[in-house]
Write a structure and sequence with these properties.
- About 50% of the residues lie in helices and about 0% in strands.
- With about 100 residues, the protein is mostly helical.
- It has a domain at about 35-90.
- It is rod-shaped.
C-alpha cells in the first residue's frame, strides 16, 4: 500500500451513473436499520433465492401481508373452533322412517 494516493483526477459519485443508480432509493421506500436473528435472515434468503426475488423484498411482502390480514384474537379463535366443532357435535337425526 502506498502512504499517499492522488485523487485529483477522481470522479464524484454523482458523475458515475451506475453508482448514482445504486445509491438511489426507490420512491415510497425508506432505508432503515433493523436487527433480525441470523436464522430468520437465513430462512428469508433461502426462500427468496428459490422464488427468484430479493430477501429484503420478501421480508417487506411478509410484513405487508401480516399487517393486511385479520389478526387472530380470542373472538376469531372462538368462531373458528365453534365452526369446526359443529361438524362433530351435530345431533343425531331423529326423524321418523
Amino acid at each position: 500500500m502506498r502512504n499517499e494516493y492522488d485523487f485529483s483526477k477522481a470522479k464524484k459519485v454523482s458523475e458515475i451513473k451506475h453508482l448514482t443508480d445504486l445509491q438511489a432509493i426507490p420512491a415510497g421506500k425508506k432505508r432503515i436499520t433493523i436487527m433480525l436473528d441470523d436464522d430468520v435472515i437465513g430462512l428469508f434468503k433461502k426462500q427468496a433465492e428459490s422464488s427468484g426475488i430479493g430477501y429484503q423484498t420478501l421480508i417487506n411482502q411478509t410484513l405487508r401481508n401480516s399487517l393486511e390480514s385479520e389478526p387472530v384474537n380470542a373472538d376469531l379463535l372462538r368462531k373458528v373452533i365453534r365452526e369446526e366443532l359443529a361438524v362433530y357435535i351435530t345431533p343425531p337425526d331423529h326423524s321418523p322412517r
